[in-house]
Amino acid sequence: MKFVNFVTAAAFAAFTLPALSQTSTPRIDQRQANQEQRIEQGEKSGALTQREAARLDKGQARVQKMENKALADGKVTAKERARIAKAQDRQSRKIYREKHNQQTAK
């Protein structure tokens, strides 16, 4: 269990530290942080299994990669923002479904 907490903390830091240096997308960054907290809270409460949390973290990493790619040229266009927002919407729904299904960590 300590290993899972370490992995969660490392993943959270990996997502939030780059977000602090990227000031051009504060709304996207804040939403990423909120979703990471939801995953972490689900893990702590037992609503998420280790496998579910790992899968959700991987999805969050994909969204972060999309943001990083959009920022590569120095500007995030409206189209890129919309695409990232849609991916975040999908991730949010996945987090909700996984937290509210019948599987629990024992």
Explain the overall architecture.
It is a single chain. With 106 residues, the protein is an all-alpha fold. It contains 4 helices and no strands. The relative contact order is 0.16. Residues 19-23 have low confidence and may be disordered.
In short:
The chain has 4 helices and no strands. The protein is mainly α and about 110 residues long.
Average the pLDDT over all residues and give the rounded result.
86
Q: Describe the global form.
A: elongated
Helix/strand/pairing category: mainly alpha
The stretches of 5 or more residues where confidence is low (pLDDT under 50) are: 19-23
Approximate strand percentage: under 5%
How helix-rich are the residues, as a percent range?
Answer: over 70%
**Total beta-strand segments:** 0
Main sheet attributes: strand count, strand direction, barrel closure:
none
Tally of helical segments: 4
Task: Give, in order, the helices and strands.
Answer: HHHH
Radius of gyration: 14 Å
Distance between the termini: 11 Å
